[in-house]
Queue: 2 jobs
Job 1
Amino acid sequence: MAASKLTSLDDAAMLVGDGALLGIGGVLLRRKPIAFLVALAAAGRRDLRVASFLASLDVDLLVARGAVAEVHAGYVGFEQLGFAPAFGAAAAAGELRVLEYSELLFVSGLRASLAGLPFLPTRGARGSDLVAELGLREITCPYSGEQLLAAPAIRPDVCVIHAEAADEHGNVLAPSTQDFLFDADANIARAAETVVVTAERIVPTSEIRRGGALLFSYEVTAVVEAPRGAWPTALPGVYGTDIEAVRAYLAAAEVDPAAAAAHVMQGPG
Amino acid sequence: MNHTVDEQITWSLARCCRPGDVLVVGVATPIAAAAGQLARELLVPDLALIEAAAVDVAPHDVATPMVRPEVVAAEAVGVYTQAEILDAIQRGRVSLQFISPAQVDGAGTINTSRVRASDGTMRRLPGGLAHADIACLIGRLVAYRAGHERRFLPERVDFVTGAAGRVATIVTSAAVLDWDGERWRLASLHEGVSREEAVAGCGFALDVPERVPTTEPPPPEALRLLREEIDPHGMRRLETREGRGAALRELEALS
């Protein structure tokens, strides 16, 4: 049997160096690995380049703590709850390089990485100003002559995701519910070089055998037990979004993002 | 029965659905979500309704996905993966989506990315999600907003998130506009709105026919369904300026 990959949040945070391209799992206000990001911010990490498909508190929290230089995302906000305050302020102040993707551009970039390819052609985003901003090039289909966009592979140095359960070897239990983009974490994890998984519970491998796997042990670098590790975002099927806590963050961050972040960093009450 | 502007917009969106349509409803747009369900109940029973990535969702309160997202997915016929839903859009399989961009201009270009503030600087918005993609891949788009002003309907967008060409209809708090292939035409005016108000709210030249009908108001059965079954907690008001605060408190109480 392979050695245990169990470690602490602080030790796992050491896998992310200053300036690293960090892929963050979760979508909108669901499955965000907040406990890990809190540890990363507390460790004083700087100049991170962050890739998060549809971001919310994950990106805003890191930006509020001054840890981020660059954001790659299709969305950074809190849906109907409001805009991302720290992200918005830092972007307006020119302190952040923001690369806005369309969903197809982002996911095509991940899928290129998954397939071990340098890019994937896509019909998405044609005619958008985003294309020039991202510096995308076109490619001609050698068979039909059709012009397509070449979405470059997104290959994070490190990716972090939060799951309901994992075993000590790195096998990750598949989500118990097929909510919106329930499989997205497997895509961004497999696109990355190094994978950190935080989990509500550490379980025997037999439980993963029964429930099915999101990721297999050889695909995972480190496993951390982190109960309520997605709080205040949701872990669908286990707990919902703590809307009161998110709204409290948003209200506080309007005044002082760093102080609002510090409050989240104290963890669930 | 009296109705509010959000209910009028919801009904006008529902009326854009046609038999055979495959409708995708995105996130954070409760009016669009309510309109899809309303259309399926009253107008287009065979509507293929994809909410987020859940296919053929069962009838549900539109507040549910905001509070317990797994419930709607569990009661759907099935759920697309992240790649599958975008592939369905990319291969042209989705025929309709309701979107609420920050701007739609005189050519039908959409902007969800950033807008110019009064001091001339660009203000970054949360981001366009799939708007850049659907603008060139989905059969018809219907853009809507509980407002009717030049800020939303400028001559030219401040930033091109999605290319022009697929927005077929715009539904606002004042009127319904149809794209006639070259420009926006005033298709109908909501009850109590003058044609002058509709024209004044557009930053582009609006084609105003001699006779402009009144927008069909939501019938009593639509209002009953909306208020009692599809959106009993009034989440559609999250998309209106005046109703947003109370709707947010309602949402918080539900969570």
Note: The first helix of chain B runs from residue 5 to 14.
Job 2
Amino acid sequence: MTRDMHEWLREGLGVTTFCPGCGHGIIMGAVLRAVAGLGLDMDRVLFVSGIGCAAWIPSPHFRADTLHTLHGRAVAYAVGAKLARPDLEVIVVSGDGDLSSIGGNHLIHAARRGHDLAVVCANNQIYGMTGGQTASTTPLGDRTATAPDGNAYPPFDIVDLVMAAGATYAARWPVSRPRMLARSIQEAIQCRGMGYVEAISPCPTQYGRRNRHETVPALFDHVDSLCVAREDAAGMTADERRARFVTGEWRRG
Amino acid sequence: MKKPEKSADPRPDPVFVMGNVAAAEGAIHAGCRFYAGYPITPSSEIMEHMAVRLPAAGGVFVQMEDEIASISAAIGASWAGLRSMTATSGPGLSLMMEGIGYAAWTETPIVIIDVQRAGPCTGQATHVGGGDVMQVRYGSHGDYHPIALAPWSVQEMHDLTVRAFDLAERFRVPAFLLADEGVGHLRETARLDPGPAVAGRDSRKGLPPFGTDDPAGVPPMPCFGEGERLLVTGSTHDEWGWRKVDSPAVHARQVDRINRKVEDRRDEIVEVDARLLDDAEIAVVAYGFTARAALAAVRAARAGGTRAGLLRLKTLWPFPDREVKDLAARVKRIVVPEMNRGQVADLVRLHGRCDVIHHGQTDGRVIDAETIERLIREARP
């Protein structure tokens, strides 16, 4: 984190709780740069998160109101806060399991109703905090603590999910594209209705070591190699797309 | 027909109204400005009435995707500064339990109306039940102490809803109106008096929002958007909200305080309604809709020469333990009729040293006065 970001962090913080090589620190920076770039008053910004590694990106780090809620419920708490105080900028930052598995119902219904929320999903394709179990985003065939022979079920495409449900804007980038992430988070904050930004975040501790990505750079390279631009994915079959991370931006027509 | 003369009573004229609607009016009168809910019989009239009344009162109504989302949104709105509530019945209450624990641990004022129906499970959705007494007390994991009030009339559906908001805001706890289908769907006259304004939460800024020097204190609660940069978490936290998930001292202190803030001040909360007890040798302890039949039974028993009386529990949590203990010291026997298999009778046995006769009726019907009168007669020494 660069020095100019310190004013956005709470005083009295030591190191973060993220593992070495975790992509979540980059997401933390991208969210703060987005907020700073828009010139938002942090006293009018509320960050809401659920449970898991990603939920600790805003709480306790961000020097704003932070609501660290229950597993899967971040969006539902955010809906209540936003309806009660429409003048606040409400930004949800949470993980893939939190938002799309245990909290999937809240995510799609908030998108459908069009609540004016920005949702940032740190997608590491696994349950990190609890020890590396299969998530609803784990790629087909990849190994986890609960899929020792490889995951038998295909992953969700959460961008497709929220866009189909009624989100206004969605974007997906790997954390190796921090500027694209920050720019998309700004658009998600500024658009009316739900803006969803997914950051593909490598998890060396739980995901990398189970899937033979021996080093952090190797895992980052692996994630990047799976990324395919939306335009280039147009000719792919659904199964081919599901094996990749389709990156880019989506806007409701 | 002659028009009745204008009464000198300053209260609003009585209206003929359903209990659930009276409760919704009570919420509006208590300053509730946020409702999030999900339809469920037999509580839906509360939600439908709030959908009409809240926007007109400048509040926010939202129908959520389920009960988990409903209580979550209500808690979020409470931290955003609005008096918030939801209403449900047993199956929905089961889903709300994690949010109730979150409200207890983060000390979030919230009112939950539970219009009980006949359980377990989906049970008999349109029929009366009383099986949630222990669920509202112990339903979420860990140690916490919610407040629960039990109305017996349409008037109390209104008045105790107002009181539930007062207590929730003052003590920063989830407060329940533990109603049942009997009072919820009852139609009778009541005065829906806006009354004096409900005391709000202590919203002073700059102080620790999760700790007090008093080991049983209620800290002030500022809200989001005031520059306080609040740190709210469902993990164990110190007085400023910092996660302290490895500190035995912090965890013990916080668990102790969130329970003691209710228990040490139980006299400010507990209310009972004593009827015909001065010379009674047989007492009926009852609550909710059942207490109506109990009063009729007590009167009938007295007409037949039995000195019977009624202790009606208006507060169920914190439990009126001292009131029951005092009663047991004065009477020969206590009869407890209730629409469950002894959830309150066991507590009466725990706190009262006298014979306790329990009548638990779990057939989805209300307990009638004749049944209770027979129990009183049989209880005679």
Note: Chain B has a mean pLDDT of 97.
